[in-house]
Amino acid sequence: MKQVVQNYKSGELALLDVPAPGCKPGGVLVRSAFSLISTGTELMKVSEAGMSMLGKARSRPDQVAKVVQSVATNGVPATYRKVMGKLDSYTPLGYSLCGVVEQVGAGIDDVKAGDLVACAGNEHALHAELNWVPKNLYAPVPDGLAARHAAFGTVGSIALQGVRQGESQLGEVALVIGLGLIGQLVVQLLAASGVRVIGADPDPARCELAERLGAAACGDPASAAVEGAVAELTGGLGVDQVYLAAGGGSNQPVELAARLSRDRGRVVDIGKCRLDLPWNAYYEKELDVRFSRSYGPGRYDPEYELEGRDYPIGYVRWTERRNLACFLDLLARGRVDVEPLVSHIADFDDAVETYQSLKDGELKAVAVLFRYPGQAVEAEAPAVAVPTVNVKPTPARAARTPVRLAFVGAGNYATSMLLPHLARRDGVELSTVVTTTALSGANAQRKFGFAAATTDLDAVLGDKSVDAVFVVTRHSSHAELTRRALLAGKAVFVEKPLALTEDELAGVLAAVEESGNDRLQVGFNRRFAPLLQEARKRFGARTGPASLRYLVNAGRLDHGSWYLRQGTEGTRFAGEGGHFIDTASWLLEADPVSVYAVASPGNEDLQVVLRYPDGSTAAISYVTTGSPGFPKETLDLVADGKVLRLDDFVRASVYDRKRWVSSRLPKARDKGQNAELAAFVKAVRTGGPMPVPLESLVATTAATLAVQAGLAGGAPVTLERTR
Is the pLDDT of residue 614 over 90? Predict the structure, then answer.
């Protein structure tokens, strides 16, 4: 079998062929599916191995002390041979993985061959194709939890044990210093416990990621932002706990902890940072300094780890294994989300190159996974279902004139991009606006002339005089509200996204089938933009496959934006990406058959490649780190010796035998909302076909969902048509 090893003397990393371990009593033989690189602990070890002998000595004074003692006891020659022999040997890497039980040893009755387990230990959960793992260092993976997520079990246990040492309580305020892998997990665990969290890290991307994952505020520890956030959230009293999740030789984290802690606060050391405690600062506040020892009670106890002797739960509630099982349960129930932490998934065969890229700084990552051959590859080349519409629609009736519209939601997009067009459109009556708060409904009624405002959705859905319902709420409610409106027999205009999960999409289509009502439009407005319509017409028909490039310079979100609530509202691309997939599919006149997606660390910048039946491809770059002065959307379509270019809905051009360039628009960009609404109202009024076929709406939604599956698996996702 293959295993990642390192020579500590030379610093050499290798993927070595070594004998497979046997299955001993008291444990299981596990074939790895995914193993996690600890970008803190492991890279520190890799970096130390590349140092000179003097550098190694300076970095490990504890080992130098042992050498000095050995010299006194055994003499210089014997000590030298012993030290050189140890240094010039291969040592393993890795301590957190998930795999499939291949063989069960004597005395094991809680798992069987074929079960998925998460494994821990720097001697038993190595970056290797096979590992023998003793009973107290593995835990079964709950049903439905992906193997790549379960591979975080050990580092999750480290973070969990640190939080337990802090003894956090509901309503407290905590400061997490260092927002690497462990720090990000500590942030989520504290937030899930009802603690308000402030993060400190010099990396702005890590700060932004922590805020998305639950931190109330984050900033550079050297700036005033962190101190300001602490003062605001604690009334100037200081935080209840500080979690040191940083590494390195600076004493700044320890000093910052003292400065921002309350009187008699708790300081918990989880990482490996310098700990020169400023005596006066810690004495005056009588700070309680605690250490968190790895995964929890049982660590470094050979009777527990190797012989399987458990500690009675009445005396030790949370052991290594119980912490591991607890973290897996939190993952399975969605209380902790590790997917945004996955910066890169590498094939195990590329392990050496991956370590080198991390060491050199070419690959900047929070978490990196190794994917092993065999079952892991098959598991991570998923297919996303594109349900076909199995319905015989009832004939659409023509609406009365005027067409009566109800709005569910009256937020910024509804009031700025939709209602201004509808309020002045002949043949339209704004009947009722439904909002969760009375005041927002009253404001919309006053501004746009709704006949009524209410908070009672059922009354609106039951109102037979309402012809169509607009769903313009937050993303998490779109599918359910659309389903209910369809069952009520209404034509529905729902803003993107139609659904955030495959189950939600299936639920919408089940409502279509049950009711026979397929009168649905999703707010994919760009295909209706006059400038893009004209450019497509000028480009003309094509005979060969096309290549399309779409750059979306999305930019940063404001702090506190509900778009950052990925746990409930989905990812940012899930919410907005359908726009760009729909536009590409409309230009290529087909629905995609596969999706491949990769992301930068933190899943901030995405590259999405769509493949179409005729061999055409569309590459969508969705980036948040660009300059705000650069246009948001630029698109190029190339085929048959022709090029179509769109510059942010301000100018378009087509290069053929003759070049066509549009005139610059004199007013604001027209991204098609007005034309889209006109087409929808016409379809409702006349009973004619909806502006976009339902099959296309479903295909675009499924392709958008497939992006997240592709990011998770690191492989192309097939879009399979299913009934």
Answer: no
Q: What DSSP string describes 143-207?
A: TT--HHHHTTHHHHHHHHHHHHHHT--TT-EEEEE--SHHHHHHHHHHHHTT-EEEEE-S-HHHH
> Which CATH class, in words, describes the domain spanning 155-291?
alpha beta
Task: Provide the 3-class DSSP secondary structure of residue 392.
Answer: coil
Give tens-digit pLDDT for 639-689.
999 999 999 999 999 999 889 999 765 456 899 999 999 999 999 999 999
Q: Residue 147 half-sphere exposure, CB side, CA atoms within 13 Å?
A: 25
pTM for this prediction? 0.57
Q: What is the rounded average pLDDT of the residues 572-590?
A: 94
CATH T-level topology, domain 2-151+302-379: Quinone Oxidoreductase; Chain A, domain 1 (3.90.180)
What is the C-alpha to C-alpha distance for residues 34 and 152, in angstroms, rounded to an integer? 9
Tell me how long the chain is. Answer: 723
Which of 6, 7, 3, 1 is CA-nearest to residue 15?
3
Q: Tell me the C-alpha to C-alpha distance, in Å, between residue 41 and each of 248, 272, 426.
A: 11, 9, 67
Placement of tokens 């990393």 in the chain: 13
Mean pLDDT of the chain: 88
The verdict on domain 403-523+677-689 having CATH code 3.40.50.720 is yes
Average pLDDT over residues 624-635: 91
d(C-alpha 105, C-alpha 226), whole Å: 52
Report pLDDT digits (tens) over 69-122: 665 666 666 665 655 555 556 788 999 999 999 999 999 999 999 999 999 998
With a cut of 70, say whether residue 569 has pLDDT above it: yes
The torsion angle over the Cα atoms of residues 567, 568, 569 and 574, rounded to 10 degrees, is: 50
Q: What's the rounded Cα separation, in Å, for the pair 81 and 540? A: 78
Distance between CA atoms of residues 646 and 89, nearest Å: 59
Inter-residue contact 605 to 624 (CB < 8 Å): yes
- The radius of gyration of the chain's CA atoms, rounded to the nearest angstrom, is 29
Q: How far apart are CA 496 and CA 173, in angstroms?
A: 36
Domain 527-672+702-722 -> CATH class = alpha beta
Is the distance from CB of 301 to CB of 121 less than 8 angstroms? Answer: no
SS3 334: coil
